[in-house]
Amino acid sequence: MLAPSMSKPHYLQLARQLTEGITQGRYPLGTLLPTELQLCELYGTSRHTVRAALNELQLLGLVSRRKNVGTRVTATQVRHGFQPTLA
């Protein structure tokens, strides 16, 4: 569950947690992340928040997304030189 916070939007909190899961090996390279609905249940948040978080991961170069397939881990490190919005 995401912690209530006035300083960071929920989608950024979720994106940070998912990024940590990827970089720490919880979600290995080439695997699919849980579905949007599973992430909603797991983190107690809305689908809109989950989609925004997954979009952040895509911008960081960590995942690729395909309709009716899912979100696949494509890298375990943020692309060098890319300035993430999660900082």
UniProtKB/TrEMBL annotation:
The reply on keyword DNA-binding is: yes
Q: What SUPFAM superfamilies does the entry give?
A: Winged helix' DNA-binding domain
Cross-referenced InterPro entries: Bact_HTH_transcr_reg, Tscrpt_reg_HTH_GntR, WH-like_DNA-bd_sf, WH_DNA-bd_sf
Biological process GO terms, please?
A: negative regulation of DNA-templated transcription
Q: Which residues form the HTH gntR-type domain?
A: 8-76
DNA-binding recorded as keyword: yes
Q: Which domain of life is it from?
A: Bacteria
Fetch the Pfam families from UniProt: GntR (PF00392)
Could you list this entry's UniProt keywords, alphabetically sorted: DNA-binding, Transcription, Transcription regulation
Annotated GO MF terms: DNA binding; DNA-binding transcription factor activity
Protein name, as recorded? Putative HTH-type transcriptional regulator YurK
**Naturally occurring in which organism (per UniProt):** Paracidovorax wautersii
Give the gene that encodes this protein.
Answer: yurK_2
